[in-house]
Amino acid sequence: MEPPLTRIERMRQSLLSAKALGAMVLAGLAVVLVPSIPSTWSSVEQSERFRLTQDRLELPAPPDVVPRKIVAQTWERHPEWTKRNLLDRSLARDIAAGFAEHPWIAMVDRVEKSRDGRVVISVQYRVPVAVIETHRGLYPIDSQGVLLPSQDFSLTESSALPRIRGIRSIPNGQPGKPWGDPAVVAAARICEILMPNQNLEQYWKRFHLEALIAPALTEESYAAGVEMLTFELVTEGGQRVIWGHSPGADALEPTPRQKLGRLEHYLTTYKTLDDPDVAWIDVTPIE
Q1: Distance from C-alpha of 246 to C-alpha of 29, rounded to nearest angstrom
Q2: Cystine design at 157: which of 57, 138, 153, 165 (Cβ 3.0–4.6 Å)?
Q3: What domains appear along the chain, each with residue ranges and CATH number?
Q4: Rounded to 10 degrees, what is the CA torsion of 22, 28, 34, 35?
C-alpha cells in the first residue's frame, strides 16, 4: 500500500491536471476555429457591403466638352468587375488600367479606395482642339493629335471647332490612339494656341478664321523635320495668313504670342483681316 500523498504533492498533481485539461481545450478550439478562418474571410469578401458596383466608381467632373458617360462605358467594357470587391488588393491597379483604355482619358493619376466605400479615380481628360477635314468626314482630335470618338460630337459641335485642312493621311487606329501623322500633331498644337482653354472667342472667332491649312508633305519636308512645316490660316473671307511653324519648332520665328499680337495689331488698325488689296498677311518675319 502506497503512503498517502502530502498536501504539496496533491496541489502539484492538481496543477498538472489543470494544465493538461487546458491544453486539450485549446487543441479542440484550434481544430474547430482554424478551418473556419478561410470560410469567414471568404464570407466577408462576398459581403454586399464590400462588393464593387458601378455607383461606387467616381471620376472628377469633366469639362463641358467631355461626355458624362465614361464611368458607364468603362463598367460595361469590364463585366468581370461585377465579381470584384473592395478588399481585393489588386482592385486599384485593375481599375486604373480599365479607365486608362477609355479614349477620353489621357492619363489616370491615381485610384483611391475611401472609407465610405467609394473608389475615386483621379484622371486627366482629353479635350478637343480641332477637327480634321477629310473626304470621309470630320475627325476630332486633341492637342497631341489623338483621335477622339466622332460619335460623341453633334454636327454643330464638330463644325464649331477649328478646322484643319490639307491632311492627306487617315487615322492609324481607333479613338484614343494617336493619328499617326506628325503633321497632325503640329497642326493640333497651333489650334490649341488659337483656342486657349477651349475659348473660341478669344482668337479664332475674333479673327474670323475658317481653317488651318497643312502643307503637302514631301520627302524633303520629312528630311528637314515636320516641325519645319509652314502652316497657313485662312479667314472666312478667304484671306491667307502665313502662320509658320508649330510652337517651339524654330527660334528664328516670332513666338506664338508675338504672332497673335501682330494679328491683334492688324485687326485693330484695319478693323478686319480681310483686305482685298492684300494678297496675304505674314506674321513670321523677325523684326
Answers
A1: 75
A2: 153
A3: 48-125 (no CATH), 128-282 (3.40.50)
A4: 180
